[in-house]
Amino acid sequence: MKGNKNMASMGSSGFLIIPWLLLAESAALFSAGVSSGKSTPAVFVFGDSILDTGNNNYLPTLSKCNFPPYGRNFPGGKPTGRFTDGKVISDLIVENLGIKDLLSPYLDPNLGPEDLITGVAFASGGCGFDPETIRSMMALSIPTQLILFQEYKDKLKANVGEQRSDDIINRSLYLLSSGNNDIGSTYFLTNRHLEYDMTSYAAFLATQASESLVELYKLGARKIGVFSTLVPGCVPQGRTVGGGGRERECAEDFNELARLYNGKLISEIEYLNDHLPGLKIVFVDLYGPLLGIIQDPQRYGFVDVKDGCCGTGELEFAVLCNQLSSTCINASNYIFWDSVHLTEKAYKILTSEIMKDINKLQNEIKC
């Protein structure tokens, strides 16, 4: 496919080398960022394609989208590796917080110091808590994303000093989104459903999420927003593979597993809030608001709730949604851009719904 020619591989040394010399030359920018007085100086995001702003561009994976028609409604009309037609939730949140317009991917070799002091994305499309998901998607796992964050911290400390670095890390906002690929793909489309019943698999994912949050806490995070899943049985792919029949109704077993996981995730969050000093984690519900949009699309100006804008709208995403694919004329009529991901318009509506949860963390400055 035409989209494949834009796929990039990492260098022989593994992850791309970030131009850290720019940081040394621009330490004054860090000082200005720390002393600005903002309650949230930076945002760091981890997890999957909901938050990935282009890291997969630099990985040897088919789970990428740095080619048309992705990015059709992004500023300049260019594909950037965001899994939608425009901006993703990461961008919209930092914009809402008044930090900057876009959140850059950490693996971007063109990152400047001004990008780094205000936060970057470590998220990787296709990521999940289940190791089987990582193996099949060839995405950055959460542990790998945390290793990259430690690398970021070391470079930050080397350039601005321990006190300023600790201040940035302590007061920043951290966001985590994962579980969507585990539920929407791995559990029902591999042998995982033979190895676990839904309750035990939900518990397994929630435990993995909790362990990731503990590691993030050890790295200095004190204000964390943890996203629920989307509504996996009602995304176009879920309807196609699990809904059954010509009507392609929502796949209820997909949604049941998501609800089980989200419930167990809330319990894990409550436990961590009670037992880790200085930590504030907020559960950010995407499932409920998105289900509300799907059930009452006319209220939000949507016409099609079952199909993605790209291709047939039933199965295409990532490399299967490419220059050869037909696309809808007006993406704002669609909740979904491809068979898995939302349009920028839908992400904007979701972001407006969840900012109340994000703002709960704004004034939480812990020691």
Automatic annotation (TrEMBL):
The keyword Cell wall biogenesis/degradation does not apply. Pfam families: Lipase_GDSL (PF00657). Keywords: Signal. GO terms for cellular component: extracellular region. The keyword Transmembrane helix does not apply. GO terms for biological process: lipid metabolic process. One of its GO terms (molecular function) is lipase activity. InterPro entries: GDSL, GDSL_lipolytic_enzyme, Lipase_GDSL_AS, SGNH_hydro_sf, SGNH_plant_lipase-like. Residues 1-24 form the signal peptide. Belongs to the 'GDSL' lipolytic enzyme family. This is GDSL esterase/lipase EXL3. It comes from Linum tenue.
